[in-house]
Amino acid sequence: MTSQIPHLDHELVQAAADVARTRCRGDNHTMAAAARARDGRIVTAVNAYHFTGGPCAELVLIGAAAAQGVYELDTVVAVGDRGRGVVPPCGRCRQVLLDYFPALKVIVGGGDRIRTVLITDLLPESYIWADHQLDAE
User: Fold this and answer.
1) What pLDDT, on the 0 to 100 scale, is given for residue 7?
2) Closest Cα to residue 47, out of 20, 69, 27, 29?
């Protein structure tokens, strides 16, 4: 189920846009992400592109959050450099975000269609990694 973007999340989009504008340089860093922790703190990160692959901004954000003692994220958004605006998470990021934060809200859309959706809305009928782990005896 989707909802209009709450006022609080405009700050999150702006935080990611500011990082994309000021920290993304060249081809190595082209995306920024921002997330709001459950305690209200905002954590930001940029991707680390490399021709062999590299983590998207959302995945770097998970590590940056943990390094700051943030283990519960409420809402996340990714923004492209050069004014590209909000960019939805790729498939790999959707799966990882779902596995780490099953109640996470994700900001998606563009222009007047920016909205907040649950991560489960982005991956209906998804594989839940934790549901398939053998219980330790």
Assistant:
1) 60
2) 29
